[in-house]
Amino acid sequence: MSRPAPPAYKTRNWPAYNEALKRRGSLTIWFDPAMTWDAAPTGKRGRRPDYSDAAIQTCLTMKVLFGMALRQTTGFVESLLRLIGLDWKVPDFSTLSRRQKTLKVNIPYRGSDGPLHLLVDSTGIKVEGEGQWNARKHGGTKRRVWRKIHIGIDEKSLEIRAAEFTTSDVGDAPMLPDLLDQIPPEQEIASVTADGAFDTRKCHDAIAARGAAAIIPPRKNAKPWKPDTAGAVARNEILRTSKRVGRTIWRRWSGYHRRSRAETKMHCVKLLGQRLSAREFDRQVAEFQVRVAVLNGFTALGTPVTEAVG
Q1: What are the b/e assignments for 34-55, b being 16+ CB within 10 Å?
Q2: In whole angstroms, how far apart are CA 166 and each of 49, 97, 125, 203, 295?
Q3: Which of 97, 159, 189, 203 is nearest to 303 (CA)?
Q4: Phi, psi (5° rounding) for residue 46?
Q5: Spatial separation of the C-alpha atoms in residues 284 and 293, rounded to whole Å
Q6: Among residues 54, 31, 11, which one has the least CA distance to residue 293?
Q7: Which pLDDT does position 2 carry in this prediction?
């Protein structure tokens, strides 16, 4: 029996997408003179901060985009403000480092019409350590430290709608309820797609509580659960269907392969750097969230519209 030919895809909006890719590399940076650069009064006792969260996030965004250290970031922003004629003061490197620890990063997103189809994925990212080869070759440290990043993206707009950052000893499945909590309650979730690591009672119950359909392949040795919750009932139905038609057909029928878009987005996160430069956990959280904000900004410029042909 001959193997079926894989489908071919064509990008229907190539001129617009090509222009969006070019704009991602543009060095045009706009500073709104009406932007709140200085911190507003807090109404509390003590000296107020000199710079707003927006100012700190702007500087850290430049740092992530151009892969600079904090001191070089300060000089870069100072030169930009001088070129456009703004007399704003720029936070020094120690202020940026201190404020990064408590910064509440504003992550923009446009959203999409209709119910949300959430694609979830988790992976590790290195924060320090030289690796085994370098340790053997040059006598470097053998200790490598990793962190886990968890994201949920909108299948339609390809924007990151939920993001979590944890230590490496935290599993993938326990973070799914936290990702769902980041979606506003008024936002309808149609489906949540994840890999077999999320085939747990807690995950299925959290998805069922939001009224969404779980598209999660059961584990190979999966057994039916006691149908005492809506999540367990839905999961047992997935198990029966996958056994009746086969895992391959079930994945194609359910649309499970859409989850590859979340893996692609993870690759984009690491294109901004294969490792995090911050040393402390709280600062690493802010650095990761700034990356998410940058990627959502890139996505807002334009995405490809593809369809199968032939």
Answers
A1: eeebebeeeeeeeeebebbbeb
A2: 28, 20, 10, 17, 20
A3: 159
A4: 100, 170
A5: 14
A6: 54
A7: 67
Q: Which residue has the tokens 């085994």?
A: 132
Q: Report the distance separating Cα 309 and Cα 191, nearest Å.
A: 26
Residue 184 tokens, joined: 């506003």
The predicted model scores a pTM of 0.89
pLDDT 10s digits, 69-94: 999 999 999 999 999 899 999 999 99
Q: In which band, very low, low, confident or very high, does the pLDDT at 283 lie, cut at 50, 70 and 90? A: very high
pLDDT on residue 264: 94
Q: What is the mean pLDDT of residues 204-217?
A: 96
Q: HEC profile for the chain?
A: CCCCCCCEEEECCHHHHHHHHHHHCCCCCCCCCCCCCECCCCCCCCCCCCECHHHHHHHHHHHHHHCCCHHHHHHHHHHHHHHHCCCCCCCCHHHHHHHHCCCCCCCCCCCCCCCEEEEEEEEEEEEECCCHHHHHHHCCCCCCEEEEEEEEEECCCCCEEEEEEEECCCCCHHHHHHHHHCCCCCCCEEEEECCHHHCCHHHHHHHHHCCCEEECCCCCCCCCCCCCCHHHHHHHHHHHHHHHHCHHHHHHHHCHHHHHHHHHHHHHHHHCCCECCCCCHHHHHHHHHHHHHHHHHHHHHCCCCEEEEC
Position 161, amino acid: R
CA distance 62 to 67: 8
